[in-house]
Hints:
The complex is a heterotrimer.
Chain A: E1 4-11, H1 15-26, E2 31-34, H2 51-62, E3 66-68, E4 71-79, E5 82-89, E6 92-103, E7 107-109, E8 122-123, H3 125-133, E9 142-148, H4 151-161, E10 165-171, H5 175-186, H6 189-201, E11 207-209, E12 213-218, E13 222-227, E14 232-234, E15 237-242, E16 244-246, H7 249-254, E17 258-260, H8 267-271, E18 287-289, E19 302-304, H9 313-328, H10 332-336, H11 339-355, E20 371-373, E21 378-379, H12 380-384, H13 389-396, H14 408-416, E22 430-431, H15 432-439
Parallel strand pairs in A: 1-2, 1-6, 2-3, 6-19, 8-15, 9-10, 9-15, 10-11
Antiparallel strand pairs in A: 4-5, 5-6, 7-16, 12-13, 13-14, 17-18, 20-21
Chain B: E1 5-10, H1 14-25, E2 30-34, H2 41-45, E3 49-50, H3 57-73, E4 88-92, H4 95-110, E5 115-119, H5 120-126, E6 136-140, E7 144-145, H6 148-161, E8 165-168, E9 171-174, E10 178-181, E11 186-194, H7 200-203, E12 210-219, E13 229-232, H8 235-239, E14 245-253, E15 259-267, H9 276-289, E16 297-308, E17 315-317, E18 326-329, H10 335-351
Parallel strand pairs in B: 1-2, 1-11, 2-8, 4-13, 11-18
Antiparallel strand pairs in B: 3-7, 4-6, 5-6, 9-10, 10-11, 12-15, 12-16, 13-14, 14-15, 17-18
Helix pairs in contact in B: 1-6, 1-10, 3-10
Chain C: E1 9-13, E2 16-20, H1 26-32, E3 38-39, E4 45-46, E5 59-62, E6 65-69, E7 80-82
Parallel strand pairs in C: 1-7
Antiparallel strand pairs in C: 1-2, 3-4, 5-6, 5-7
Amino acid sequence: MRAERAQIAVVGAGPAGIAAAVAARSCGAQVLLLDDNPDVGGQVWRRVQSGAAGGWRERVKQSGAEIRSGVTVFDAARIGGRVLLRCESAAGARVIDAERVVLATGARELFLPFPGWTLPGVFGVGGLQALVKNGLDVRGKRIVVGGSGPLLLAVAAYLSERGAKIELIAEQAEKSRMLGFAGAMVRQPGKIWQGAKLRASIIDVEYRFGAWIAEARGDDRVRQAVMNDGRVIEVDAIACGYGLVGNTQLAQVVGADVVHQASAKGKDSRDGKSQKRTDLSTGVSYGRVVVDDVMRTSVEGVLCAGEPLGIGGVETSLVEGTMAGYTAASRDDLARGLIPRRRRERAFAEALERAFALREDVLCLARPETIVCRCEDVTMARIAACDHWRGAKLLTRCGMGPCQGRVCGAAVEAMMGWAVRDVRPPVFPVSMNALAATGGATEAE
Amino acid sequence: MSTKFDAIVIGLGIVGCSCAWALSRRGLRVLAVGDAPIGGGATAAGMGHVAIMDDSEAQFRLTARSAELWMELRDELPPEAAVDYCGTLWIAADEEELNAAKGKHAFYQKRGVRTEVLDEQSIAEAEPNLRSGLAGGLRIIDDSIVYPPVVCEWMLKEVSRRGGAVKFAHVTSATRTQVWLGDGEMLNAGVVVLAGGDISAKLCGWLPVRPRKGHLVITDRYPGFCRHELVELGYLKNAHSHATESVAFNLQPRPTGQMLLGSSRQYGVEHAEVEARMVAWVIERAKLYMPRIGSLRVVRAWTGFRAATPDSLPIIGGRDGVDEPVMATGHEGLGLTTSLGTAELIASILTGARTTLDAAAYSASRDFGGHGGH
Amino acid sequence: MDTRAREVIEVFVDGRSVRVAPGVSVAAAVLNAGKACRSSVTGERRAALCGMGICFECRVEIDGVLHERSCMIEASEGMRVRTVDAG
Lengths: 445, 374, 87
């Protein structure tokens, strides 16, 4: 297959990718924007037409960037001074041969296994929102929203607007932790307003700190949520997610440096539950792509922006995406002008992360028989009997299914403190035909 | 480590684990030492095919004896070892290859191995997803598949249960009775066995063992798509040639409905990266035999390094008068199959236990045709 | 045919007619029909978790193609979807 030439290819059309495309186009560069969803906007702006989302959506559509949706980029390689992206879509396989690539691959939810979490009707928080945005009917459904982070409130409000009956919002973080966070919010007045507005739309709903879903019960689907205090709530659905994890797979495959700072917490602290740590923070960081001050990774021609650099939220992603777009278009000077803004946004994100740091309790919800790897149905007991991720993978096959450890890898990293870091192409399951068609391409059209 | 061991086995792959297990079963206190994890390296990367082969009499004897030992072991292994007697189907694309299949059939029949020649129609019935118009094939009825890392873990548990131990450490050098580790520690034992696969030559420079890189991919679950381990009959001339690069169609159905697809062989490649070019080549080759395979989804791809020798036979045993470990290496793509036979032979060499295998054929002192380090 | 031009799309989930609005994902159509998606390795009934194409729990058969992520695909007229709950 002959490769298709592009000056700048942006992977991911969430806020960071959109901003990168817009910025690069504003410098006159030719831009190809690739995304695996049916429409641009990423997860956070899925089907949102109003406000900032609508504005950016409009800007990118008017920018002159070529937008391709429904495209999965499954491999990236630096060859001959250029960056090759191997892609698959319903239309077939493609190789993009780009001068520069901006990786804006966003984030996924962190799921922490608890008994019953594999029952139909137990969703992620962002997961349920995404499904409802795409047509899932929640009118009249009783839902408990649990986990951690600002998303809980936003999603509860959204579900409530769509006719769901929110029974409880359970935030694992202690309220006292929010005091420091409030301090950070004082420096970010816009966000306080946003938060307050969210609260107003679900004013009647109980929002409890230091609370979590300990178990889901049901038969053919979820029927009850059991809370950490023993309270049993009849439900039609559960939305539970413990924050976000950046998608660093493509960056890793292209060879970009990624820092892993797995928590010091190892298997021992899990076995000996009596020695529960008093520190609420787990210190789990997962992988973060390393960039310089204008978003260049360690691989020449490859830039990265947004969540893969560490969870930062929409504002951070927009700033970093813009910076990456400028740098990709050889306007580092413009990117540099945004360094102070980026620093502010990152400081806010870090305060947020500290406020919602995971407590030990939610890392120990899985019972020995609880399934951790949903692709291969590997239980907690089998994983806990291993010493590290690679050993667990080989012996139990955890992480060897089609999700490639996106769900269980992050969970195991959080629960066991293991570094989870083996990434190889294809970074998504892909057809044999696509691998065959794209494997040979090295020359451009 | 203060405890004295009768034997130290270097290498935690299937060959090392089998040797440690076989020696401990014969009453030796064994220390298995090597880089973590257990069952990593080529063992983790390989397909897990137990195949009776006929390239040479020596290869046949080792694989056939090993297959017998696998058969004896099957009921002892944990269910996660996923033993499945799916049989191998050698595919003959044309009349010439079918004649080769018939020749193999005669060879196996004479030696008591259950085989069956398939014609055009019966191979189509045996594997409906093969393209039509193939000449036929040869079914090796008692070939099987197994998931090797689980077997390794089980074997080392048995070793520990019998007073042995496992130590995760990087070995930097070794003699017939001593092993030095990366942290400077020295271990002593009655005898040292080197089962280091492709890295064995790093410890004993003369060994004519070279890494031969391979690529494999695994699909999502498509139960029933493929029923036997499928290998093209061109495999022998392709894969066993010492060309720099080659591929051959080799498909294995896992009990879960997933399929492993290989295989590629590359010399002189040191990096373990998955090469898109090689993966594409492997798939193109497969599509010549199974056109419909193109639409199946690949879940993962990976690589591994086989320990290849110039004559495609493993190196088993010690050299007289040389202060170096007893060798159990160079098993190339047949490490899983031949691990149990190798272990039996090692046990025979070290303890005098009985074996039907002839050690001379695999001797470390044999003539490697100038490929050795001498 | 451009499905967005239609007001209602008819898909068949395990043979049963399900009507959805244009743009609705197959996962939503399946869940709205009271079905789960796939059977796990050990035979558990599973349905969508992440909603964004990473967990692979929402895999179904669509028009004869196995293992399609139903959350990433929009329902289209006449689509035939097969789930774990197919008879």
